[in-house]
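Usage

Read records sequentially. Each one opens with the input sequence:
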Amino acid sequence: MLRAYKFLLRPTVGQAQALGEMLRDHCSLYHGALQERRDAFRHVSKTSVKYGMQSAQLKEIRVFDPERQGRWSFSSQQATLRRLDKAFAAFFRRVKSGQTPGYPRFRGQSWFDTVEFPKDGDGCRWNATPHDPVTRVRFQGVGHVKVNQHRTVVGKVKTVSVKRESRKWFVVLTAEQEQPEPLPATGSVVGIDLGIANFLADSGGRFVANPRHARAAAAKLEAAQQALSRFPRVGRDKRTGNHRRAVQKVAALHGKVRRQRLDHAHKTALTLVREHDFIAYEDLKIRNMSRAVAPKPHPEQPGVFLPNGAAAKTGLNRSIMDAGWGVFLTILTSKAESAGREVIAVDPRNTSRTCPACGHTAKENRPTQERFHCQSCGHSAHADTVAATNVLRAGLVRRNANSA
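and closes with the structure output:
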């Protein structure tokens, strides 16, 4: 199995400048390849340019521009071209399935924040100085960069990536290692229900509070965004030091919220994996749930729109994204696989409207957001606990069906 590791880099001033130039030049290569594909499709009888054709041009590009392209790893540049090829493959796949995706487009250099090296030892070297007490990673064109290695890397390093987050630099490794020993069995099964009022409710009646990290930082974010909005939209070369510091302030606040959300998701998922052998959860369509409300044109007055509840839906969407359900479920699935636990997703329909005692399903069974009261048998409980119980039962039924 493959496991990822992420460590903070401690580059010198010159190394940080070289890392920034590496991102800039790889972004330029990405945009040049994208422009070539656009021109070929628009002007040369809709000809398609493939990855192999663009990869074959790399040698000429490196000779033509040795200062910006020739100094970097050939394999990392191939990985950048593969990144573009994957973007086009995803675009055509969505078009074929009937969706309306956006065409791959040019983006700013701040968006292009990662350079990948497909193989350790080809343009990069993890732990390049093994006899040095300080761990270092070597990048072609940059040098040996210090690494704040806070944990041991187990297994053979396969790929190495360098990533910029705000003003910090990180190295991301993927290591191939054997399947770890599963955790001892506990004999416990659980169903979980994700929500907004409570981040999580399980079938045992326990609740995990929703920390609402973005809401807690809303005042600081609002002030930082207002300070940033005072600067006019000018070219990159004309931006002042105050403008750059305002941008960094906003990015730092968003980064802190992201780290807090990840920390909460990791700790919650780890607790579930350690305590239960089987975990069932709702297969939520988070993207559909957080989609913006479509406008409602007035049938008799062109250009006038009817109220559609967009303000309330926007607040709900913001709360859903702040909870980070998708990140949590991804982390939970990964940890369960490493620990030898079983995780199953079930259909979320009517989980909070079905009575776990008699099976009666009705909208009236849930008179309020928190209260569940069965109109048939009179069973009362917390609505989220009822939903988690129904999720667990559906998960057990699906597991038995799969084993049969």
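Summary fields computed downstream for this record:
- The longest strand covers residues 156-165.
- The mean pLDDT is 90.
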